[in-house]
Amino acid sequence: MIRDVGALAAAALRPSLDVDGERIYRGEHEQAAALMHAIVTTRPFAGALNPGIGLFVALAALDRNGVRTVQPDAEYGQRLVGLVENGLDDVDVIALHLRQITLGEPWRGPLPPTG
Length: 115
Description:
Layout: H1 5-13, E1 18-19, E2 22-23, H2 28-42, H3 50-64, H4 74-85, H5 91-102
Antiparallel strand pairs: 1-2
């Protein structure tokens, strides 16, 4: 169930934001990361499903844009959305992790602790 229609609309529009006609998020992974970040942090859906929905929607957006996606390792996906929930707001870093997921090779370096 949708808790906040305005937050959902804003999240959906965030990947296409521009300044003076130039897109803020240029690549597909950056756009998907911005979408994921917006859903996870603004929590437009009721309940505790926003993090999982955020990751799912980001991967679906990549797939829709022709980027091959694979199902991420469950622990890796949980840690990534946990980082976003706990303050990771650098869209480029989130995009890096999404890029690794689409390659089927999750980031080999350490993820910062989630708590």
